[in-house]
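Re: Re: ligand-bound prediction request (bumping)

Still looking for help on this. To restate: I need the protein modeled with S-adenosylmethionine bound, output as structure tokens. Inputs repeated here so nobody has to scroll up.
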Amino acid sequence: SPGLYIVATPIGNLGDLSPRAADILSRADLVAAEDTRVTIGLLRHIGVKRPMTPYHDHNADHVRPQLIARLATEAIALVSDAGTPLISDPGYKLVRDARAAGHAVVTIPGPCAAVAALTLAGLPTDRFLFAGFLPSKAKARAETIAELGAIRATLILYESGPRLGATLAALAEQLGSRDAAVTREITKKFEEAVTGTLPALATRYADTPPKGEIVIVVAPPGEAPPASAEDADAALAEALTRLP
Ligand code: SAM
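Reply:
Sorry for the wait, this slipped through. Here it is.
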């Protein structure tokens, strides 16, 4: 039926395309894709040919009203190159405008590098903050890290290989020796998660930019260390001396 379908696609392993995602993609009247060449490959993989239109940061403002107009009668599937649309990818304004125009919005959830990285890192998962890509300019990056560093949550950042060393160095400088994980090539042949403190990871990747796609996961700020039993006893004894 007509409406906007947000379709998550694999982040490396094509086996992660859900049957429901494949079903929607095979029946959509139109597939709005970040890069149609990438999505053609995916559609070919499932033996499907559908009309496609590019929807990316550079044409979105122009294309969006046309897509919204078509939603009245057509099922439009939104996909990005990999993973979940809208997550460091275009789409939220399309969802906003589709809702405002009273059209159905349906999600077909699936792979997302941020959540996948969190499950690999071995760091607290009860509170996390996804911050996408840090700014590339040093000053803006430092300001963002300072802001994020005060938040009591595990941090999840997207990064590229060439920038990893500089980003880890900046994180280590401002956040100290928090535990962290560098996850790479998730769901692909060379998937890995390298764990360690931020300074150790910064040293490791200082001159050897790794290949592939990367997510950095950083532990929340440490709690004040719990008082030892002796300290607690001494404090209690001292407090008791003050009682009338
Ligand atoms: N929408 C996507 C998602 O749901 O994860 C993210 C798109 S964003 C433009 C691309 C970034 O996601 C990459 O630079 C990398 O940080 C991360 N990423 C995507 N696929 C990945 C993978 N297989 N392994 C590690 N990181 C990945």
